[in-house]
């Protein structure tokens, strides 16, 4: 019985070591995914902000640009 217990103990120790390595690797992957999720959220928020700015200020910039062009002799249809 002693040989069986030693073999069982050695196999259990190997299994425990493997489980701890998997846990460590999984923890690193979870942290990496959380960082990626945070980065994606940042870019999504930045995109939403830029979209709002363009939707609100785009027409005003277009009108000011057209008035400036007309005031400087750049009428539509001229090259």
- The secondary-structure class comes to mainly alpha
- The shape is rod-shaped
Task: Report how far the terminal alpha carbons are from each other.
Answer: 99 Å
What is the helix content? over 70%
Computed over alpha carbons, the radius of gyration is 32 Å
Annotation field: number of helices: 1
Strand runs, count: 0
**Are there runs of 5+ residues with pLDDT below 50, and where?**
none
Mean pLDDT: 87
The largest pleated sheet is described as:
none
Strand content: under 5%
Order of helices and strands: H
Structure overview:
The chain has one helix and no strands. It is rod-shaped. Helix content is 89%, strand content 0%. By secondary structure, it is mostly helical. The protein has one helix at 2-71.
Features:
single chain; 79 residues; mainly alpha; 1 helix
Briefly summarize what is shown:
With 79 residues, the chain is mainly alpha-helical. It has one helix at residues 2-71. The chain has one helix and no strands.
Layout of helices and strands, plus pairs?
Blueprint: H1 2-71
